Amino acid sequence: MLLGAVADDFTGASDLANTLARGGMRTVQFVGPSQDSAPADCEAGVVALKTRSIEPGEAVRQSLAAARWLLDQGCRQILFKYCSTFDSTPAGNIGPVAEALLDLTGAELAVACPAFAKTGRRLFMGHLFVGDRLLSESGMENHPLTPMTDPDIRRWLRRQTQGEVGLIPLDTVRDGPEAVAAAFESERRAGRRLVVADATSDDDLLALGKALAGHRLITGGSGIALGLPDNFRAQGLLSDRPAELPVPRGPGAVLCGSCSAASRRQVEAYLETVPGLAVEPADLLSGGMSALQAADWVESREGAAPIVYSTADPTVVAAAQASFGRAETAAAVERFFGDLARMLADRGVRRIAVGGGETSGAVVEALGLKSLAIGAEIDPGVPALVAERDGPLGLALKSGNFGGPHFFAKALDAIGSP
Ligand SMILES: Nc1ncnc2c1ncn2[C@@H]1O[C@H](COP(=O)(O)OP(=O)(O)OP(=O)(O)O)[C@@H](O)[C@H]1O
Ligand SMILES: O=C(O)[C@@H](O)C(=O)CO
């Protein structure tokens, strides 16, 4: 293994795995920190954790365990993947995990770049935009777990770190990889160990990627990985042989626990032609709705690839959180989707499209999957995935805000056939 990544959620892991696989690296998404040895032909390994919204000390512990395993597999470079909308709270977990990984890898400095131009996440003068809005006006300020209320990534990250945070502005990035390398060097001399780098286009990300060739640690969204495969290719280290994957065949279902604006539109579009079951946290907590009831409902909709969703508007989410607590509500919803996915797979569902990073983590963990092979790209940032669970099981793990309006129908087609 040449490149090892630690991802703070499951959809983020498959987003990064998608970029690396498209770049020609033989990539495997691993589930959780402790694994046996990786397959010999794996060139990039992405360990999917569910550390985005947990207590910072535990996030650090799990991230270090994953990074140690990756280093044991021979990785020359570690990438800490977080969200392109920098999902975190003033307490973490991006800063604490990045600083712990700096110490582990012995790196003197690491870039911090959430930009992902293809999905509209652009960084200018350290400020993050989603489309034409600042992060803090993009809808992310209403996120159920990590409301992003400050678009200045330097300031937000500094609240989470021990050390100062630097900046490589866009002008320097546009001056090319040598100028970027010189800027990193001057930040290093100034003692800044985490350096936010601007990028508004794939060309910027490629220039940054080239400048990062010798870095032990990189942190960012999947965009920062765009240029990394070429660094290994230039050293003659890639086999450039694409993997062949089995095709999952069988019934499908959609599970959506994401409440993002994009997911709300996608759920609405899917419901135009397919039956749906809306679940509410209050019913899950009171026992009025259970995973077993939902599994029976899905099974009774034969052949329809129905959708089960908790997706709701921000006001509805806020009301549920006010009544039952933010963590308690999320835990109930995630447990429900995990249990439901396991029951559906046990009953023969072979294609599952999931909306939301935390929801995807709950689903993949409940299914007991150990690793996921990376297939074709469905929409930017979302690949088709194939796991082994009594035969091939097709999955799509969609980040909250990714995908076009008809993502779910497209995903079920891409991850196998009925
Ligand atoms: N109706 C609801 N009320 C309150 N909380 C909900 C509701 N539906 C889902 N949730 C919780 O909100 C969180 C949504 O997070 P999730 O990561 O799944 O989606 P997302 O944040 O849109 O996606 P991503 O992290 O990929 O951007 C989950 O913890 C989920 O359990
Ligand atoms: O970077 C992104 O936006 C996604 O891969 C993600 O992490 C959302 O959960």
Automatic annotation (TrEMBL):
Which GO molecular function terms does the record list? ATP binding; kinase activity
Reaction(s) catalysed by this chain, per the record, are: 3-dehydro-L-erythronate + ATP = 3-dehydro-4-O-phospho-L-erythronate + ADP + H(+); 3-dehydro-D-erythronate + ATP = 3-dehydro-4-O-phospho-D-erythronate + ADP + H(+)
Per UniProt, the enzyme's principal EC class comes to: transferase
Q: Where is the Four-carbon acid sugar kinase N-terminal domain?
A: 3-227
Q: List the keywords (alphabetical).
A: ATP-binding, Carbohydrate metabolism, Kinase, Nucleotide-binding, Transferase
Check the record and name the InterPro entries matching this protein: 4-carb_acid_sugar_kinase_N, 4-carb_acid_sugar_kinase_N_sf, NBD_C, NBD_C_sf, OtnK
Return the SUPFAM superfamilies for the record. YgbK-like (SSF142764)
Identify the residues that the record assigns to the Four-carbon acid sugar kinase nucleotide binding domain, covering every copy: 253-408
In Swiss-Prot or TrEMBL terms, this protein is called 3-oxo-tetronate kinase
